[in-house]
Design brief:
- The complex is a heterodimer of chains A (308) and B (659).
- Helix content of chain A is 69%, strand content 1%.
- Chain A has 308 residues and is mainly α.
- Chain A has one domain.
- In chain A, 62% of the residues are buried.
- Chain B is mainly alpha-helical.
- Chain B contains 27 helices and 5 strands.
- In chain B, strand 1 and strand 2 form a beta hairpin.
- The longest helix of chain B is centred in the middle third of the chain and has 36 residues.
- Classes of the chains: A mainly alpha (308), B mainly alpha (659).
């Protein structure tokens, strides 16, 4: 096939399969809770149903309320262009592209926050405030983990800093990489509003973070929010899976490892959600600090050990 | 060199004409608009030519002042700053024409327009002078002109006091600069920059000079711990002056540091560490204090402290990387720092214009009394939104391009090994990242509370859109923010000369690589816009022919929501500031609700500056105390003074006899 076409294929698995991650988490939770639960493909059904509806807008809101979810989805989707997917190299790659990835996610967050504040609702303001605070505190951990990986692989582009490790290098740097993976997993839970930081299934607005920000959205806008959230989960899962896939494998092996890794992450999230309780909101900063400490520790281990 | 000289001439002539206008303040404003525009038209071509070719021009005239010489020079660094000053002075002036139109007809206002032009002229002179004494004179003119601009609204409560703080801070800074040039000029035997650069310096001497420069220029730039005047003086000024001061004037401090670095040569790694530490603490403390503010313009002023910190991180990284022999990292960091100087001028100017317009339309700067202004002031609100996104470094706007370069400088230096410089550069990355995350929270708060939701007071409900004089410059500034983000490689090629002069010649070859990377960043920006447009079209297609109804915001079952129930600025910042209460120590007034049917509970918190409380209050309190003790000497009685004279004479005679 034409190499340009192959390159453009990289975001396709994410665009198609990302809601499946949510479905898988839901299945794990249902099984762990001994419930029948929703089918695996429920997120797709939800999306289809929402896309078929009209919308209800708030009288307080401005055009930003309609733009916010679209900006969030567009920026998350744009971030997929920078992400390697198993054997597929990213569409756009340059030194420092992980900075762009982080700031694209920030743009998406700004869009959501602005749309929430636009409704003038006390609850949505509350959610926006929490989301802004917690994601600000998770920023250093993300940059430490990705910066540490860049140092380990001696390269500043995502394609190389995630996928550039040889099997021997992976084994050698396993302690540091393990710490980075742990930090990224904690970030995945925090940034994607999972337990123990947020509970995506809660019914009490006062305890919500992400869900309360999108209370007033409906129809296709809400579909954009749900879909964008699944893409964001995919991105975080992909970051921590890609680290462990050695370079130089045949394409099928790399694709298989990647798929297995993504499924493993979804199952782990489901298990964490089933087995742990939510943290008190006041303790969330400590949780995020823990992610930062793990990532920083990984960097120190790396620096002490040196590069192979 | 004739271009900037003509600019200076036009500005001075305009200043005189404006001052002569007396009560016809609109005429004074007209003169100012014409003269600032003409000055920009006259000065820009020369500045751009120097920037593109990299060949410096200079001019010298005989002067009878002792120690000084009337010599001006335009090297790429000066040319960059001249272009920057002249380019931004124009939109701010047009905005000011609209902003001051309410109180027209006072001769004080004509004077203010005159001072505006003097301020611009003195800044042009600061960056083009090639002599220490001339620079100091221009510096002082700049401080005095801006001081009188700050106290324009002197009838308002507190403005004079803020002006006084500014005056004291500015002159403490000048004292450090006087020391700097006195010492250095003493060693060199002249104050001309060429002579200063030529004198060989010992390690201790160059450290002394560097520290004096950081104290003197850093206090103008607003670096922690010299920043306390900035959040007081900038909000007190009329908004177009706030924009000029926050966007442009504080960068004169950055220029000074860069100029002294170029003149000193023989850089020490310690300078890089010091600048990184000051930059990092300015960035973090600036944004934390900004989060705690209720006053919109004071919040913006604290963000100037943050952004000067980001610029200084770039400079510190550049210095450190160059001393460690990491040429490309140094080039990236200096390019980022210079680009951020320009970008911050654009978006901070835009934010002050937007914030000022909102505050003027609703009669208060108190964020908790505002709200819902985007509906009432769509142009102002859109401008403020673009500025907010740019200052949070969100792609595809200009702030991202410059912060990306600074990050790249830090990281590419960090990647080169595990020696001390690399490690320090590496661990500066999370500091910058945290400041970025906090800035996003802060602007989600500022924009959300002021422009979104429902108005929290009657004046905010009746606010009307600003005049075209004010809206048009905001539109221009917002477009510039977007354009620089989408065409970053072009702009970076314009600042390649000054950046490579700072990073050292060896790094010049890396310039093309920088532009190539930035072109990919810009490409991603275009892709993002395209994606958003596609999604917008999809939404429109989906909703065509379906019902889109409007209802009040969902109040979770509560049927009588009021505007007072919305999250306020303080409540928004609480999750971030709450855990830091022990460090930041806000003043809290809490009346707890009591009883079964509580009435009249209230809560308010004020964040006071740490540096004010720990550093300056004891310092100035002590100084005032000392002055109080000396006061008995000054009784105002003639006999007493004659007695002092007599005693002094006797002492002198004794000294003569005994010696």
């Amino acid at each position: 096939m034409n190499p340009v076409v192959v390159r453009l294929l990289a975001p396709v698995p994410a665009l198609v399969l990302a809601p499946l991650l949510l479905g898988l988490i839901g299945r794990v939770k249902a099984i762990m809770g001994a419930r029948r639960g929703a089918p695996l493909l429920q997120p797709y059904r939800d999306l289809a149903r929402l896309l078929g509806k009209g919308e209800v807008l708030s009288t307080t809101a401005t055009a930003l309320f309609r733009l916010g979810p679209l900006v969030a989805l567009a920026s998350t989707a744009a971030a997929l262009f920078l992400l390697p997917t198993g054997p597929l190299t990213p569409v756009l790659s340059f030194p420092g592209d992980f900075l762009l990835l982080a700031y694209l996610l920030a743009l998406g967050r700004f869009g959501t926050l602005a749309a929430a504040m636009d409704t003038g609702s006390a609850f949505e303001g509350m959610g926006a405030s929490r989301e802004a605070a917690f994601s600000a505190l998770s920023e250093p951990a993300l940059f430490l983990a990705l910066g540490g990986l860049a140092w380990a692989r001696h390269d500043l582009s995502l394609g190389a800093l995630l996928g550039g490790g040889t099997a021997a290098g992976l084994a050698l740097q396993a302690p540091a990489l393990g710490l980075f993976t742990a930090a990224l997993f904690l970030l995945l839970l925090a940034e994607n509003s999972r337990i123990p930081v947020d509970d995506p299934a809660t019914h009490l607005e006062l305890t919500m973070i992400h869900e309360v920000m999108v209370l007033d959205h409906s129809g296709p806008s809400f579909a954009a929010i749900l879909y964008g959230a699944s893409l964001k989960l995919w991105i975080f899962a992909s970051l921590l899976v890609s680290v462990w896939i050695p370079a130089g494998l045949p394409a099928w092996a790399s694709a298989g490892l990647y798929a297995a890794g993504m499924a493993l992450v979804a199952v782990s999230v489901g298990l964490v959600e089933s087995l742990t309780a939510r943290l008190k909101l006041a303790k969330v900063p400590r949780f995020l600090a823990l992610a930062g400490v793990l990532a920083g520790l990984g960097c120190l281990v790396l620096f002490a050990g040196g590069r192979p | 060199m004739s271009g900037p000289l003509i600019s200076l001439g036009i500005l001075v002539a305009g200043a005189i004409l404006s001052a002569l206008c007396g009560r016809r303040s609109l005429a004074a404003a007209g003169v100012a608009l014409v003269s600032v525009s003409l000055a920009a038209a006259a000065g820009m071509p020369t500045a751009l030519r120097v920037l593109v070719t990299g060949r410096a021009v200079s001019w010298r005239a005989p002067w009878s002042l002792p120690w000084g010489s009337l010599s001006l020079a335009l090297d790429p660094l000066s040319a960059f700053f001249i272009a920057f000053i002249l380019m931004l002075a124009v939109p701010f002036a047009f905005y000011g024409r609209g902003y001051l139109a309410r109180h027209r007809g006072s001769s004080w206002q004509s004077l203010s327009w005159s001072l505006y032009q003097i301020l611009v002229a003195s800044m042009v002179l600061v960056v083009s002078s090639a002599d220490g004494l001339l620079l100091l004179m221009a510096w002082e003119a700049m401080s005095v002109a801006s001081l009188f601009l700050v106290i324009h609204d002197h009838e308002e409560e507190g403005v004079l006091k803020d002006g006084l703080v500014y005056a004291v801070a500015a002159h403490l800074g000048v004292a450090a600069l006087l020391g700097l040039f006195a010492l250095w000029g003493g060693w060199a035997g002249s104050l001309r920059f060429a002579d200063l650069a030529a004198v060989p310096l010992s390690r201790g001497a160059s450290w002394t000079l560097f520290l004096l420069a950081v104290a003197g220029f850093g206090s103008k730039a607003g670096l922690v711990p010299f920043h306390v005047w900035l959040p007081k003086a900038h909000p007190a000024a009329p908004s177009h002056v706030s924009a000029l001061m926050s966007g442009v004037m504080i960068k004169m401090g950055i220029y000074g540091i860069l100029r002294i670095l170029l003149l000193l040569g023989g850089w020490q790694p310690g300078w890089g560490y010091l600048l990184l530490a000051m930059g990092g603490s300015s960035a973090l403390l600036g944004v934390l204090y900004a989060l705690g503010q209720h006053d919109l313009k004071r919040l913006l002023a604290y963000h100037s402290v943050e952004n000067v910190g980001i610029i200084t991180i770039g400079i510190g990284a550049g210095v450190l990387a160059r001393t460690a022999g990491m040429g490309i990292a140094s080039l990236l960091a200096f390019t980022g720092a210079l680009l951020h100087v320009l970008n911050h001028g654009l978006f901070k100017g835009l934010l002050f214009c937007g914030g000022g317009a909102a505050a003027q339309a609703s009669g208060t700067r108190e964020m908790d009394a505002l709200g819902g202004l985007l509906k009432r002031m769509p142009w102002t609100g859109t401008g403020f939104l673009v500025g907010s996104m740019a200052i949070c470094a969100l792609p595809p706007l200009n702030g991202f391009a410059s912060e990306f370069l600074i990050y790249s400088g830090l990281l590419s230096g960090a990647l080169s090994g595990r020696a001390a410089p690399s490690l320090v550069l590496f661990f500066s990355v999370p500091v910058l990242a945290l400041a970025g995350g906090l800035a996003l929270a802060c602007f989600a708060k500022a924009f959300g509370v002021v422009f979104l939701g429902e108005p929290r007071s009657a004046p905010a409900r009746d606010a009307r859109e600003a005049s075209l004089w004010m809206a048009a410059p905001m539109l221009v500034l917002a477009s510039a923010c977007l354009a620089i983000g989408l065409m970053a490689p072009l702009v970076v090629s314009l600042i390649a000369e000054p950046a490579s002069a700072l990073a050292g010649g060896a790094a010049a070859a890396g310039g093309e690589g920088v532009a190539a990377i930035l072109s990919k960043v810009a490409l991603a920006g275009w892709a993002l816009l395209l994606l958003a447009a596609i999604l917008l079209a999809l939404r429109w297609l989906l909703l065509r022919g379906r019902t889109v109804s409007k209802t009040p915001t969902w109040g979770c079952g509560f049927s009588a929501p009021t505007a007072r129930m919305q999250y306020t600025a303080s409540s928004f910042a609480e999750p971030l500031l709450g855990p830091l209460r022990g460090v930041l120590r806000p003043r809290v007034h809490l009346i707890e609700p009591r009883g079964l049917f509580p009435e009249g509970g209230s809560f308010s918190s004020h964040l006071e500056d740490w540096a004010d409380k720990i550093l300056y209050e004891p310092l100035f309190g002590g100084a005032a105390n000392l002055a109080g003790r000396v006061r008995p000497l000054q009784q105002g009685r003639l006999q007493l003074y004659l007695l002092y004279t007599l005693l002094a004479l006797i002492a002198l005679v004794l000294w003569q006899v005994l010696a």
